[in-house]
Structure formats: structure tokens, C-alpha cells
Amino acid sequence: KSKIWKLTEVGEPSQCRSLRLPENMRVTKISRLIFTNSGNAILALASNAIHLLWKWQRNDRNVTGKATASLPPQQWQPASGILMTNDAAENNPEEAVPCFALSKNDSYVMSASGGKISLFNMMTFKTMATF
């Protein structure tokens, strides 16, 4: 079943809010950025082939736990410290076109950064398959 989205036209700059995403890693450039389907996290793919995930916590200031510019999300990583890292382009990384796609339930991400395609588990960050 597909959702019908009601679009809102933004006509005034005052209707927009920005937010800097905190990050603990040295990332020079974000190549791709997407909201999760559940609306409570942002997934980014950096130019160095590493994925970054930020989640909004459910608390008394954000009872839904959904994305909001009123509160910054927290960068999230599993306790194992593992990173979701793509196989990078061997010859010229500047020519690579990084891309990724999330599963409907946000459990998996399929991703590439110019090399092999990887399938990652979003809860554990483990590589499920590479082809």
C-alpha cells in the first residue's frame, strides 16, 4: 500500500530550520543523505565510503522520537564499534557515484561507493553480502 503525501509549499525562509549533525569521525564530505522510512533517523554515506547514522531519541522533549530541527539527533553505532564501510573504487574515487537504498522497514541498506555492492544490517552494521 502506497502513502499519499500532502506537500506543503515553503514560501518564506522563516519556515525553514537548519541543524548541524554532530559527528565523531573525520568526514570531509557527505555524498548521500536520506531520512529513514520510520522518520526517526538520518543515514549518510560519506565520500570515504563510511556510513553514518543519527537517531532522534524519544524523551519528554521529543515524545514521538521523530526527526525534528528542535533537538539534535545522536550519532549511533552498535556497541561492537563496527562501521558500515563500502568497497571503494580502486582506480579513481572521484569518478565513483556513491548510492544506497534502504529497505522498507529500515532493517537493511544496500550500498556502493564505486566498488562492490554491499548489503548491511542496520541494527548490527554487519555486512550481510557483497557482490
From TrEMBL:
TM helices/strands, residue ranges: none
Protein name as it appears in the record: Topless-related protein 1
Alphabetical list of InterPro entries matching this protein: Topless_fam
GO biological process: regulation of DNA-templated transcription
